[in-house]
């Protein structure tokens, strides 16, 4: 199996994604439910454009021939700074045939097993139907210490209730994608979600011994608020351009956020990461690790755990090549000078 075979297989199964040669949001404008961007799709597209506005600076005389891609995230050593992003509601978004609960379970099994095999971590998702969260919890029980269940911004008591399930399942950490406060998919299910304040974050943090990660941060001010509230990590994310049109890309805001909170909490970022070079750019801009969403979903639908593992292995090899040609021996310190705004 190779990645092209995986993509071809996914294309034959998915109606919510065209599996384009370049996943840039242009062919799936407004496809929600589906994997497209909201309305004009500009937020989705901007993620890729913003990242493409940075170029890597070659240092091919550095003598780096065996770069080390390992990182330590929240005390756990990973083989690479690449984690699987939370994706929930696979039948709704990928629009594949089959029993919805079984499709969700197969997806979560694929991404969590691949993360385990590749030596990294996997966020799992949440959505309007109960099985969309419990499916990830079931995979978490099978692979304790690997999974980060991610909870929609429900009422605090509902979030804490779901955190208890994550704790019992042996989760590595727990997260909430607070940027889903206006997500269309949640409205379809009639599920109440809404914005979260710094005091909400603090209350949730105090409710658990698990590291709590806030996904959907796009400003230095809110990053500082999360750090002050006790969150152990943030994900710089605009929800893949699925919750608001006309937004800045994640690479537009990452360096300012890193300047405000680097070292106080773990900085994850998603949005437009497609190649190993993109990973290195994000790290140079201040991230500690990246999350992969749509490409992982395509790989899971098209190739199961083997397909996702193949994707992760490919990204790791590309990252090593990028490190070698830019003179980065280790990811413990990625010089900001290896990227230049074009």
| Percent of residues in helices | 40-55%
- The mean pLDDT is 96
Oligomeric assembly: single chain
How far is the N terminus from the C terminus?
Answer: 37 Å
Strand tally = 12
Order of helices and strands: HHEEEEHHEHEHEHHEHEHEHEHE
Strands, helices and their partners?
Elements: H1 3-13, H2 42-52, E1 54-56, E2 71-73, E3 76-78, E4 82-84, H3 90-93, H4 100-118, E5 122-124, H5 131-142, E6 147-151, H6 156-169, E7 174-177, H7 184-188, H8 198-206, E8 212-217, H9 220-229, E9 233-236, H10 250-261, E10 266-269, H11 276-284, E11 289-292, H12 294-326, E12 339-341
Parallel strand pairs: 4-11, 5-6, 6-7, 7-8, 8-9, 9-10, 10-11
Antiparallel strand pairs: 1-12, 2-3
Structure notes:
There is one protein chain. This protein is of the alpha/beta class and 342 residues long. The chain has 12 helices and 12 strands. The chain has helices spanning 3-13, 42-52, 90-93, 100-118, 131-142, 156-169, 184-188, 198-206, 220-229, 250-261, 276-284, 294-326, and strands at residues 54-56, 71-73, 76-78, 82-84, 122-124, 147-151, 174-177, 212-217, 233-236, 266-269, 289-292, 339-341. The strands form 3 sheets. An 8-stranded parallel β-sheet has the order 4-11-10-9-8-7-6-5. Strands 1-12 form a two-stranded antiparallel sheet. Strand 9 (233-236), helix 10 (250-261) and strand 10 (266-269) form a beta-alpha-beta unit. Helix 5 packs parallel to helix 6 (156-169). The longest helix is centred in the last third of the chain and has 33 residues, at 294-326. It is globular and about 55 Å long. The mean pLDDT is 96.
């Amino acid at each position: 199996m190779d990645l092209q075979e995986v993509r071809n297989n996914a294309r034959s199964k998915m109606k919510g994604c065209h599996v384009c040669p370049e996943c840039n949001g242009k062919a799936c404008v407004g496809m929600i439910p589906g994997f497209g961007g909201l309305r004009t799709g500009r937020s989705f597209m901007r993620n890729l454009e913003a990242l493409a506005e940075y170029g890597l600076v070659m240092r091919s005389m550095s003598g780096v021939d065996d770069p080390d891609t390992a990182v330590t995230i929240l005390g756990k050593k990973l083989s690479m700074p690449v984690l699987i992003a939370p994706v929930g509601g696979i039948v709704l978004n990928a629009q594949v045939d089959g029993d919805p609960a079984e499709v969700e379970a197969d997806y979560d099994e694929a991404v969590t097993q691949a993360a385990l095999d590749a030596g990294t971590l996997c966020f799992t998702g949440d959505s309007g139907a109960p099985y969309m969260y419990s499916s990830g919890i079931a995979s978490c029980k099978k692979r304790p210490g690997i999974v980060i269940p991610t909870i929609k911004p429900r009422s605090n008591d509902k979030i804490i209730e779901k955190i208890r399930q994550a704790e019992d399942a042996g989760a590595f950490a727990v997260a909430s994608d607070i940027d889903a406060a206006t997500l269309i998919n949640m409205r379809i299910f009639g599920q109440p979600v809404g914005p979260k304040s710094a005091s909400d974050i603090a209350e949730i943090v105090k409710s658990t011994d698990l590291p709590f990660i806030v996904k959907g941060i796009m400003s230095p001010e809110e990053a500082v608020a999360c750090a002050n509230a006790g969150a152990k990590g943030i994900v710089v994310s605009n929800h893949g351009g699925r919750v608001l049109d006309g937004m800045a890309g994640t690479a537009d805001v990452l360096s300012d956020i890193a300047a405000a909170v680097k070292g106080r909490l773990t900085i994850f970022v998603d949005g437009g990461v497609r190649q190993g070079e993109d990973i290195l750019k994000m790290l140079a801009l201040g991230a500690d690790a990246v999350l992969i969403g749509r490409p992982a979903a395509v790989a899971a639908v098209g190739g199961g755990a083997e397909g996702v593992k193949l994707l992760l292995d490919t990204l790791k090899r590309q990252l090593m090549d990028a490190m070698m040609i830019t003179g980065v021996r280790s990811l413990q310190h990625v010089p900001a000078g290896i990227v230049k705004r074009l």
